[in-house]
Specification:
Layout: H1 4-9, H2 16-28, H3 38-50, E1 60-67, H4 82-93, H5 97-105, E2 107-115, E3 125-127, H6 145-164, E4 169-175, H7 179-191, H8 195-198, H9 207-224, H10 231-238, H11 241-255, E5 260-262, H12 265-277, E6 285-287, H13 296-303, H14 319-337, H15 341-344
Helix pairs in contact: 2-3, 3-14, 5-14, 6-10, 6-11, 7-9, 7-10, 7-12, 10-12, 11-12, 12-13
Amino acid sequence: MKTLAETREAIGLLDQEAMAAAQRRLDSLTKPRGSLGVLEELAVRLAGITGQALPEVKNKVVIVMAGDHGVTEEGVSAYPSEVTAQMVQNFVNGGAAVNVLARQAGARVVVADMGVCAELNFPTVLPWKVRRGTANMARGPAMSREEAVTALERGSTLAEQEIDQGADLIATGDMGIGNTTAGSAILAAFSGLPVAKLTGRGTGVDDRRLRLKVETVERALAVNRPDPRDALDVLTKVGGLEIAGLAGVILGCAARRVPVIIDGFISGAAALVAGKLEPRAREFMIASHLSEEPGHRYMLALLDLKPLLQMRMRLGEGTGAVLAMHLLEAACRIMREMATFDSAGVAGAL
């Protein structure tokens, strides 16, 4: 297992030569230059990430990380914390939304227990529990700094293991009752924006619970005083174990030059942490969609990422990221399968 420092050091820059070669290829295809818009931008970006002028998508994986949150003691969620473990079983049985969309996309679903309160006995779930849920961040730090680093390193290790087994496109997914409260706290700590502006209804809380949720995040920030200049401090004090694990996945993908698709609000929080830990990692992230959670647009702005889709989704699990896999594969196929003006015998532009 690589240390966090080793993973960060391994992250490089986009391959400019591969991007230039990809652009030349796109400009030679039987279409007006730039007429495929974002698909062309994606193709060039993928070339830069992978270092291949003709990138290809063959083995798609969505990594879903699960963890519980002590802050649910404050009544911030419409669902009890037991739902986290129950949904993990649903993932194992193939019945969740992410399973359906992954089957359609031809992607494997990999589930890791990073901090579920219950003891899980599913042979297909990776037993990488750091601890049984975070502590209540409204009363003190969610975890220790050592636990945060452990979760980050386990996430990057999982990404590297999947890449070693052939994964060339990885999406991030999450499961954790109470995690939108942690996501809002992370975003507020990094952005300095008002908590009420960033906090949404998550699992569908009513107005009373939403006010309680905002007050809880404000109290967590006041109690813990996370330092926005220290990403580990923010993660430790107001984060989650599945968020830490996903940040590690993102860093691991960047270190191995494999594109990583960011899902919605929780994956966005993980991406913020990863981007603060190593700014170069942002170049390897692709934003799948704009979540209905009000804070998500601010996350993407901080990361300087533009979402591919706007579907009014807020489920998590990696659902939006898996939908975006189709677009990335389309961008690669355009590059590889479309005819050039010369090969098709079509006259080019005057």
